[in-house]
Amino acid sequence: MGGTVEILHLLRSGLVLTKSEITAHTGLSRSTINQRIDALLDAHLVIPSGSESTKGRPAESYAFNRTGGHLLVADIGATGMRVGLCDLAGTILEEVELSIAVTEGPDVVLGTVGKEFTQLLIGANASADSVLGIGVSVPGPVDTASGQVVHPPIMTGWDQYDIPGWFSSDYTCPVIVEKDANAMAFGEQQVSHPDVRHLLMVKVGTGVGSGLISDGRLHHGADGAAGDIGHNYVPKPDHVQDEPECRCGNIGCLEAYAGGWALLRDLQAVGVEAESVEDAVRLLRSGNRDAVRLARNASQLLGETIAVTVNLFNPQVVVIGGQLAAADDYLFAGIRSAVYRRSLPLATRRIQITGATQGQQAGIIGLALLVAQSVFASAPLPHLHTAQAADLAS
Ligand SMILES: [Zn+2]
Fold first, then answer.
1. What percent of the chain has pLDDT over 70?
2. Confidence of residue 383 (pLDDT cuts 50, 70, 90)
3. How far apart are the CA of 219 and the centre of ligand 1, in A?
4. Which candidate, 173, 154, 153, places its Cα nearest to that of 73?
5. Do residues 200 and 253 share a domain?
6. I need a labelling partner for 264 at 20 to 30 A (CA). Which of 4, 19, 92, 307 fits?
7. pTM summary value
8. How much distance in Å is there from the Cα of 248 to the middle of ligand 1?
9. Residues 77-122: pLDDT tens digits?
10. Looking at residue 342, which CATH number applies to its domain?
11. 217 and 309: one domain?
């Protein structure tokens, strides 16, 4: 694709460059650079950014035009969603949060997303044509190639649903669908650990999930199932009588012991009043004895599974996030002790086990940055007029 993606990649990193400097960086011929810059200027993806004097003659320099269009993102959780409008660099300009159960099904949930997208565009005085990329993250396994969720344990009615296709009547841009823990992993790495190449993000919320950044890139595996540690089998601990059933239909999964829903089940079993994961979080924060005891047991099992992952993957940083992690120091203590006990010294010598820094926004921040990266990472670049697209492809 004749260098367009390459030039845009350079400018998106924040550099402001003259054509000579672009030549030096890319090795492209001057005539190719002239053509590509013209097309990118026409597409409003690049803007002139003042002049610099080179050998006495002024030379125009160019920058990425982050305001040349919009990105739309929706971070769909089990019981609520965040929807945002972003610039082309993935910075969130406007954001709304609302309660909706993912079990309402794709028509209702995506219908709500669609309405919110429209409202955000109206609020910014922008049209659907200005949208160059859409990102949707969901609490379930996503097939990377098709953007469909596949046998999601908690997303009733979503199995194999064509999420990208739902948006095609209103938008012509690419639609990226991502598992929630992957979006969080990307956001934490980009914002808080930009120099870290190997990162494991563990989300401990209603369920347990993880996302992997391998050599600086999100690791999906062959199909998109990488990182689903919540459904790893855990050998029955002594304090448990019968192996618990999991939401996925198996028995003895990690999240059937250590997820928020399991904590809620166990609290109710000992007569503690708790209706939601939020209630369990409140009990933990107030130091409720049963909640603390159950969380300590859970943290050991989480730690043992994370230790296996550390041995397999050798991350430099392990980020623990999600609702329960934010409420629970015991979780960190248990995870740390298990990882240091069960992982090899070479893997733990430099390891950093830390909390998530983006809080409840980690998912939407990561998703926005992921869409910004994906949309401009490969040809054809989105949403250029046919003539421009032909120019760029030539
Ligand atoms: Zn399971």
1. 93
2. low
3. 21
4. 173
5. yes
6. 307
7. 0.90
8. 4
9. 988 999 999 999 999 999 999 999 999 999 999 999 999 999 999 9
10. 3.30.420.40
11. yes
